[in-house]
Amino acid sequence: MKARRFTPALLALAALSSAALSQTLQPQARLTAPIANTSRATLAGSQPPRARIAHDLGAVDPSTPLQSMTLFFSRSAQQQSDLDALIAAQQNPSSPQFHQWLTPAEFGARFGVADADIARTEAWLESQGFTVQGVSPSRNSISFSGTASAVASAFGAPLHRYSFNGENHIAPSADLSLPSALAGIVSDVRGLSDFRPHSHFRKGDGTLFKPNFTSSQTGNHYLTPPDVAVIYDIKPSYSAGYTGTGQTIAVMGQSAIVTTDITKFQTGIGQTANPPNVILVPDTGNSATYSGDESESDLDLEYVTGIAPGATIDFVYVGANATASVFDSLTWAIQNRIAPILNISYGECESGP
Questions:
Q1: Which has the closest alpha carbon to 104: 138, 152, 133, 72?
Q2: What is the pTM of this model?
Q3: Which domains are delineated in the chain?
Q4: Alpha-carbon separation of residue 43 from 50, 71, 156 (angstroms)
Q5: Residues 178-200: pLDDT tens digits?
Q6: What are the backbone angles phi and psi of residue 58, rounded to the nearest 5°?
């Protein structure tokens, strides 16, 4: 399992210093044929792996609404080569492009999809009964909404209900298919399944984990942020005055939290209370709490604020829309330039969607 899943492309876009490359290349149109449903191609691996091994309970109601589905575009071979070179230069201290990050709009101008291709794809989605909600600033995705019936017709895979580990889910019943013209420029369609990424939070029982700090109140063993500062030799930075002041760190989540849980932890370890700014991603449903996900976010927030007590902390999370996930939190935070430092502690198996 992967605990953190930042791709180099996300890293090139996420860090937000003011300087950018002076020269941009406008993307070339890549749709060379009409988008026709009569000729289709399979989007291999697009059915969630968990759906393949779950118990199939049959088709969902065709009128079931799905919000915030997203169609992602691939990059051309030349764009990918240019992006790889840019990322290498941004990480090379001897390069004039070192740490010269792109804004989402600048990224889209170089590595996104041409306006003509976006317009034709939007027109096709609307012709299939979907409502287009918007194009990402990085110009590599289109968000849309619609019904299960429209999904089955447009993507060739009816949505089914599944039982998996005692939970009920919905997901495509097969790999998706696309008109052949689109298949050459589309890499993925997300938001069709409610198999969310799992948190990696595990509550210790004293047998698996044996840290060396012992609570004088309970006798249980714990690690606190000051222990982490010793383990990773952060104390010299504190002594030099580096406590995160002036920085903003955004933590990604997929459950609401109780901010007093965070401030109680902070005061409990002797720090000044510093509650996070809580941001619900738009169009992901009403705020909702999920126990395992809440614990994961609590842990992230407690240790981020504990290790960088002077920083401003934003908590970005998705609501009760079952097909929204922590990766939507990450995408929204990047596209909206929420913070220069992002934290995500979720992951899927390498073979996952």
A1: 138
A2: 0.78
A3: 8-190 (no CATH), 213-343 (3.40.50.200)
A4: 17, 12, 10
A5: 999 998 899 999 999 999 887 76
A6: 105, 175
